[in-house]
Amino acid sequence: MGALLQKLEEKRLLLSDGAWGTLLQEKGLEAGSCPELWNVEQPETVRSVAAAYAEAGSDLVLTNTFGGSTLALRRHGLMDRTAELNEAGARLSLEGAPGKLVAASVGPTGEFLPPMGDLSEEQMREAFAVQIRALLKAGIRILCVETMSCLEEAVCALQAAKAVAAELSVEVEVMATMTFNDTPRGYRTFMGVDCRSAAQKLSEAGAHVLGSNCGNGIEQMVPIAREFRLNTDKPILIQANAGLPRIENGVTVFRQSPEHMAGWVPRLVDAGASIIGGCCGTNPEHIRAIRRQLDRLL
Ligand SMILES: [Zn+2]
Prior knowledge:
Blueprint: H1 3-11, E1 14-15, H2 21-26, H3 38-41, H4 43-56, E2 60-61, H5 70-74, H6 82-96, E3 101-106, H7 121-137, E4 142-148, H8 151-167, E5 173-178, E6 181-183, E7 186-188, H9 195-204, E8 209-217, H10 218-231, E9 236-241, E10 246-248, E11 251-253, H11 258-263, H12 265-271, E12 273-278, H13 284-297
Parallel strand pairs: 1-12, 2-3, 3-4, 4-5, 5-8, 8-9, 9-12
Antiparallel strand pairs: 6-7, 10-11
This protein binds zinc ion (ZN).
């Protein structure tokens, strides 16, 4: 059994971390620029985010590698630096959060398979494989495939993880989460995937942990977690935004307080989630408040 599932068995409920993009933007990262470039240009800042979440009580800290696939980096003209930027991102979280589980973030490529795009599944798997190879070589053993809308893309990332782990003869645990919207036909990703198909397909593709991140506040995550629970026996990870987005002075902001978010944690646990963290708009204060709440439940 890998370190993540083992820790989960020991502690029953685990706390993940909060937003990275939100914190890096507060520290000067400009919208539209490449966050992963900061792994080499502003390493202290990136390491300080990992350290802040470790200090706030996270059991699990992610990495600044969300847009680290070759296809996502290509849009910034940085495809050739895929290995370097991912390796640096892995190292900064391992250094910033010693003694914690570190899960490397793997986000969408931003490209589409047919019929929406013309990328082949083989190309998509390769885009993830280059990223994942660098992460595993840097010592990562847990991956977090997140913010996925397309089920086939998430499966490509899971397949790439399995192939690269076999190639390097290492054991890897993979968490896979998708982003849902509340629609008249229930919760669906913008590509139309519902929670039931997500739970079944991600599970079949070998995810060790599955669930949802982003797109919703913690209230909406309760029914999402429940639907996952009905369709899988695997542990469920939920990383909610700090409420729904609001536009203030032309900027998207999330304003839900740490206390409000933490207050919903027992309902999320009842619905089936066992790894809980935050997504957009959450910061170490939200994580600290959720820590206190989880400690009361343990
Ligand atoms: Zn988010």
